[in-house]
Amino acid sequence: MAATPPRAIAAAMDRRTVPPKLTLTERPEPPAPAHPRRLMESGHDRAQGDTCTICYLYVESPVGKHSKMNVCCMKRVCNGCFLAAHQRGLLDRCPFCRTAIPTGDAAELAMIQKRVDRGDAEATQRLGNQYYHGELGLVKDVPRAIELWTRAAELGSVDAHNDLGFVYYYGHGVEVDKPRGIRHCQQAAIKGHVESRLYLGLVDYDNEDYKSAVQHWMISAMMGHEDSLNLIKEMFKEGQASKAQYAEALRGHRDAVEEMKSPQREEAKRLGV
Ligand SMILES: [Zn+2]
Ligand SMILES: [Zn+2]
Hints:
By secondary structure, this protein is mostly helical. The protein has helices at residues 7-17, 36-41, 63-66, 79-87, 105-117, 121-133, 142-155, 158-170, 178-190, 194-206, 210-222, 226-237, 243-259, 263-270; strands spanning 67-69, 76-78. The longest helix has 17 residues, at 243-259.
């Protein structure tokens, strides 16, 4: 029979395969409800994490489609800057920090875990996603994902608030808790998360508070969110948004989209990067 390894070694062996449990209370308190005025007056600029770390431009929504975040540094790089780096011959390194891109799930997971251990908000949110979807060889584990997103939100991840909002509101893998979901979306929207802003408008629409729904979608449309602009158009057709609001949303959306364009990004789109 194999000897029992000393405690420290056993812990280290555990750490190689099982990420350490985070010290969270059993039932973390949901965020406090946002003050209605603060909710509408904040978050008109997008979250800082939505910019490309190389060209400093905001990334089009959905940001996951138009950019990547390498696990080495967890810095967002847009498809245009990825293409430019590729064209300069930087094929297997992160365009931002020049670390070699990990090959294989285990190497990628180890890099993420290292950053999670150091209290990196974005890496903790990312690991939550991997558990939620059962990626990188992990077994799908929604409670673990929620635990990680809760920790990431505490550490300042706006995306983690959005993820928590979504799962609690719709009850995806967890018992439905709409008020808790809404509060998380409010926290994300206040910090400029466009999808959370869209959700909040949908919630108001379901509750037949059309005026508030339009206010939310105006904010996200002006940040360049196309679905929100289309919703304002529908509301205008239904008589719930004024012609002036629709015109303002169109102008604001167009300007935001223009500001996100660059020759590199256009080329990346043409090449399907
Ligand atoms: Zn860029
Ligand atoms: Zn990097």
